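Protocol step 4 of 6: structure prediction from sequence.
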Amino acid sequence: MQAVSNKLAERLSDAPTTVSAEYKPRADGSTMKALAWFGARDVRLVDAPIPYITEPDDIILKVTGTTICGSDLHLYHGEIIQLQQGDILGHEFMGIVDRVGPNIQNIKIGDRVVASFQIACGECSYCKQKLSSMCDRTNTSGLQNVMYGHRDAGFFGYSHFTGGFPGGQAEYVRVPKGNVNLLPIPDSVSDEKALFLSDILPTSYHAVVDTGVKQGDVVGIWGLGPIGQCAARFALMKGATRVIGIDSVPSRLLFATERSGIETIDFSEHTDVVKRLQELVPGGLDVAIDCGTFHQPKMLLHKVEKALMLETDVSEIVNEMIRSTKKMGSCGLIAAYAGYTNHFNIGALMEKGIRLIGNGQAPVHKYWHELLAMIGAGKLDPTFVVTHRVSIDEFPELYESFDKRVGGVEKVFVETKFSSPPSAGAPRLSRVADWGSELYIV
């Protein structure tokens, strides 16, 4: 798939952008540790050149915290097109400013900052509305233009389909348009609380806000990874009277019950999820949100079609949501979908008057000031979802274990040589090999 998509991309014209994904290495030839993709289930810690200022709006960060995201598993499995060997991964990171370009006025060397996972220009019509993920001017992918009719913003560490920008699972990272894509963090907010402003907090909040959760709603959430767990909390904050999470990973179901206080459905036990939801909520859900994944089909038919590349994405979750949601209710898709699906229940969508909302990649810039204020005021503590802390040296092992849900893993803080010690109440440093024997086989 990668060879075909890369060849096709070569034949298409690159879209014009205001930034380049390439960076200059430091003149002294110094290197850094970075996590790079080399093939399906083949990620390696490599020595890569440390980036230097390449364009006048650049900022170079010393990374103090990074992590692995559920959507990174799509890269790990080679399911996102236009990956190339040696691509540096990672779209959630924060750090200390190490270098600034001559155009940077609002951020200085030594500042603690968190990066948005998307790269916004700050000047196009979408950016002026704080819809940073929809920026028109930072992604060169002509292939995305053809497939979607338009293109998203460039993203860090997420293939050349999103611009080919080196990511933040590294000791240093170049941030193009650093004046708009970095948020200064006050000293009162720890790294463990600030890091997730890069993605999972704005993403889960956006899913709840954009799908329209309101006071008194009954909400169903498919997928109880970090996005699902955070979305459950935000739904309750918005006034939902009941939240029901659907998953099959025992540790995640237990986590949701004990730490988020929501109801759960184990779809390995209740294989007919729609029937179970109709028993629990006879009138139907008001809102359903897909926080799951497209790369784990349940039905044999989808497994065969996916293996034969007859579809890229699976429609099972969205079909379950449509059937479980009340007439005129809303269904939101925040889970990462990439291409085409079969057997979509379009009839039920139309006849029930379901509002099916593609939430899109979350516009981080729209929400991160609000969310930072919530953290500062003590109304939101993102560390509830952090279960482990490991060294950057363990990234390859972390990908394998995260993929298999070893040791009850939810969200991991990955430290570098620039990181501060763990803050009070945050997980201590551990080794992946010591996480325990609990294993969920997909």
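Step 5 (inspection) to follow. The first strand starts at residue 24 and ends at 25.
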